[in-house]
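[step 3/7] inverse_fold.run input=structure_tokens len=94
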């Protein structure tokens, strides 16, 4: 199993647009065969901060996600242009 946690801060003024892109991406990603969990969360203290918790069956499933049309539509060609800061970290279950 592969776990990825991503924290992003977006540019002010694009909160609603980014939230909608995340909703769509979350919905599509959860249908991927190798996706175990995909949860997008928004900070209560700062509506510009999101945390994405992702679990995939293996590295191949993560690569399939990153190459999917919906990832390119909503992330690469979507909300990425509004990201001010991004931090991603991989975790292993214990």
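[step 3/7] decode complete -> sequence:
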């Amino acid at each position: 199993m592969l776990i990825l946690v991503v924290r992003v801060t977006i540019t002010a003024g694009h909160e609603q647009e980014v939230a909608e892109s995340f909703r769509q991406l979350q919905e599509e990603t959860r249908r991927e065969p190798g996706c175990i969990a995909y949860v997008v969360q928004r900070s209560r203290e700062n509506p510009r901060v999101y945390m994405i918790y992702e679990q995939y069956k293996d590295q191949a499933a993560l690569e399939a996600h990153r190459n999917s049309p919906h990832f390119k539509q909503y992330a690469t060609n979507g909300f990425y242009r509004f990201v001010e800061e991004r931090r991603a970290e991989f975790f292993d279950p214990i």
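[step 4/7] annotate
The chain is about 35% helix and 35% strand.
Strands lie at 2-10, 35-42, 49-56, 83-91.
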